[in-house]
Design goal:
4 helices, 147 residues, 0% strand, 2 domains, mainly alpha
Length: 147
């Protein structure tokens, strides 16, 4: 799954670079550009950001510090880990709820160039929220046993 996410992120980044660089060259060389390239790059950037966050959560790659936790005993470490996991689960639920509310609000709003619905951003947020929730639920038992 992580390999697939990495490939998707790399593909998004590659397409973004080609679109933006190609548009810059076309504007300077021919005084004309691809109208939809900026909008597509924006959409790809949003998807890249959220898919990258999902990949980082899956690989436990987010930045963190254990300055305080390293000094705690085993039982206190488990309590702190449980609080952290519950906080992340709560944040995932808030993201999911907020993304749904934004989709309902923006379902009829269209992008200026492509005419696509702005609600197309929301599945990216749903992916992050669901994956974050799944990682919190699955890793809580495994990590607390290791602590």
């Amino acid at each position: 799954m992580c390999r697939t996410l990495d490939v998707l992120c790399a593909a998004c980044l590659l397409v973004m670079v080609v679109l933006v660089f190609g548009n810059v060259v076309l504007r300077y060389a021919f005084n004309d550009g691809i109208t939809i390239s900026e909008e597509l790059a924006r959409w790809l950037f949003v998807w890249l950001t959220f898919l990258g966050a999902v990949a980082a959560v899956a690989e436990h790659g987010h930045l963190g510090t254990d300055l305080l936790v390293a000094r705690l005993g085993t039982r206190a470490k488990r309590v702190v880990l449980a609080i952290a996991q519950l906080s992340m689960l709560g944040a995932a639920l808030l993201l999911l709820r907020g993304a749904w509310q934004q989709m309902v609000i923006n379902i009829s709003v269209q992008a200026p160039v492509s005419g696509c619905r702005w609600a197309g951003f929301m599945p990216a947020v749903w992916c992050l929220a669901c994956w974050l929730g799944a990682c919190c639920c699955s890793s809580c038992g495994a990590r607390s046993a290791a602590a």
